[in-house]
Amino acid sequence: MIFKFSKEKLFIKIIYMFDLFSGEFLIISNKPLAIFQILEYRINMNLLPQDVVVLIKLKLLNNDAWTYNSIAYELMLSSSMVHSAIKRCTNAGLFVLQKRRPNNRALEEYLIHGVKYSFSPTLGTITRGIPTAFASPLLKEELSHNDSQPYVWMHPEGSQLGISVEPMYKSLPAATLKDPLLYKALSALDGIRIGEAREKKIAIEKLLSFIKSPS
After folding, report:
1. 3-state secondary structure of 205
2. What is the pLDDT of residues 169-212, one digit of tens each?
3. What is the pTM of this model?
4. How many Cβ atoms are within 10 Å of 88's Cβ, its own excluded?
5. Which one of 68, 101, 118 terminates a domain?
6. Less packed terminus of the chain by CB within 10 Å, N or C?
């Protein structure tokens, strides 16, 4: 499937492996691998969902006083996963390794125009969890969504009943419980991923208020 924009091209892939014994192609990843191109920055991206969260976390820190282990602990990922995420983001042009910081303008461009298509939201059944998107405290005061149920990340400590939204990775909801700013940023990102034009516009404004690069 190919989506075309004035500045972007997007391809969504499923990873396959050829089995020599059966002579068939087998799916070895049920997560989409996003290949996204921003022509303005000449960026080609091979990303996994957790890479987006790592970038947002590093942007929110807004300094270079971090370690792979500290980021892994705070995001409830392994150190090797954080290493791999940084490597992919560096190769994509979204992270500047020498400065140990995200590429601000490219990251903003990707979050606004790419993530919704790279990692489109997977909605599930009614469950109890942590409010996200238009149900989150950040957005619910400004948006009145038409759905009868709010959106939530399924989690045993969640207090809201609503439509489940698959998080960017399994342990993400638990990680946001100990990081209120990360929770706000990612609930706004879900608003971009799920929302229509008006809702998306407000969610973008909220997200950029956290991660906007200096003028």
Report:
1. helix
2. 999 999 999 999 999 999 999 999 998 888 899 999 999 998 87
3. 0.78
4. 19
5. 118
6. C
